[in-house]
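Note to self: keep these together.
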Amino acid sequence: MREILHVQGGQCGNQIGSKFWEVICDEHGIDPSGRFNTDGKSSENQLERINVYYNEASGGRYVPRAVLMDLEPGTMDSIRSGPYGQIFRPDNFVFGQSGAGNNWAKGHYTEGAELIDVVLDVVRKEAENCDCLQGGEHFKVKSSQFYLSYNL
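Structure:
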């Protein structure tokens, strides 16, 4: 089994990541509660590679292997209250309280520096739960340019 660890950060990265999870859930037949949809529209083939992006939890729930981070709580609150907000592991939401106010130095040296150990700990825990971590993907915005990094 090969697993991918997904990390999304910042307001735009989390908004794009949230939509990404909606699409992935739809492709795999996962409903907003994290369960495989057995309404007749889904097929068993959708479960074939589900372990690439999801961990199977108790009760047949599928939980995204994702870490969501931001320097302020607003985006996290929006994701949690969104249609697929309840499928994420609550411990994997990592956020600060004040944000950086579009100040790179504040985000890098103060607010971000305070969160980095917590983020790395959550990423480490997710990676340790994998049988064979294939790689990771990261959604974020830097200098007004969106990019997705994928490492093997």
